[in-house]
Amino acid sequence: SEIEKACDLLFSKSETLDYKYDVSDRTVNGLLVLPLYGTMLGHKQQQVFAPAPKGIRKIIVATNIAATSLTIDGIVYVVDSGFVKQSEYNPRLGLQALKVVPISVSEAVQRK
């Protein structure tokens, strides 16, 4: 998934930082990178709600569905792409497809 790819990219980029803390699982250079999306298994989703180990910053990469339907304690910063995948019918092809579109003004206000 795109969320997993983003987590992998953040994890690999964090390996280039000077500060080395612990390289295990998804923790490196004081960063813990975790995905969160609707189709994840429950036990993997629970990792997001657990407190980060002492001295570790937790980065959660989430879909808009996960971000709008859950409350996660301890969030300090949120980086939002300003885009969402939206189902759209293509009459020429006769198919539904997901299209990446900018979020609406009301969605942007809610995400603040």
For this entry, give a set of tags.
elongated, 3-stranded mixed sheet, 30% helix, two-stranded antiparallel sheet, 112 residues, 4 helices, alpha+beta, Rossmann fold, Helicase_C-like
Describe the structure.
One of its GO terms (molecular function) is 3'-5' RNA helicase activity. With 112 residues, the chain is α+β, with helices and mostly antiparallel strands. The chain has 2 domains: 2-79, Rossmann fold, CATH 3.40.50.300; 81-112, no CATH class. It contains 4 helices and 5 strands; from the N terminus they run H-E-E-H-E-H-E-E-H. It has helices at residues 2-14, 42-49, 64-69, 105-111; strands spanning 27-28, 31-36, 57-62, 83-90, 95-102. A 3-stranded mixed beta sheet has the order 1-2-3, sandwiched between helices.
Brief synopsis:
The protein is of the alpha+beta class and 112 residues long.
* Annotation, overall tally of beta strands: 5
Going by CATH, the homologous superfamily of the largest domain would be: P-loop containing nucleotide triphosphate hydrolases
How many angstroms does the end-to-end distance come to?
Answer: 25 Å
Question: What name does CATH use for the topology of the largest domain?
Answer: Rossmann fold
Helix content range: 25-40%
Give the mean pLDDT: 80
Order of helices and strands: HEEHEHEEH
The proportion of residues in beta strands is 25-35%
User: How would you sum up the major sheet?
Assistant: 3 strands, mixed
Residue windows where pLDDT falls under 50 for at least 5 positions:
none
